[in-house]
What does this fold into?
Amino acid sequence: MIKLSITASLLFFVSFCIMFYICKHKLADKICSGVKEYSKILPPKISDFITVNIDKINPYLNSFINGFETFTSKNKLLYAIFLCIIVWAGDCIFVNVLLHGYNIYISPVAGLLVTSFIALSTIIPSSSMYVGLYQYAFILALELFGVEKSVALSVALSHQIILLIVYSVITLFYLVKNNINFAFSKSFESIT
It folds into this structure.
């Protein structure tokens, strides 16, 4: 479990550094051009397939990369890191409070471990809202502390439902606050 956590943390850190470098030097177009250039050594059908798909993906990739421009400013990067720390700390506290509600008393560091393991499980492609995988990760993490599977499943479902409600309320609040409706989002989709 520790090796998995360290590996995932390193993977995240390396990926973040690569994305930061690509964003800072605006390399998305160069990478796409390079992939298309190197695909020419492949058979024509495969090369054409790659070229067509790279041309389709490139605008979306540039849009995605533009979202990372926040990280080119040191102040904005530090602010984003600060907010991430607050969110992670809040989730760890929430996990510990939820566990105490189920009469499971483990150290606060264990809450961090459970939260980290759940976060790792969400990087694996799965169904909508990570149903199944999310609960299994919760069960595996809590099994390390001797928690029964049925209790761990109850905690996992409670955690996921409460977070879904909280995120939905926050989303609705900002939709109302910013006067965003579905007609606006559909008109934005037609522009992009």
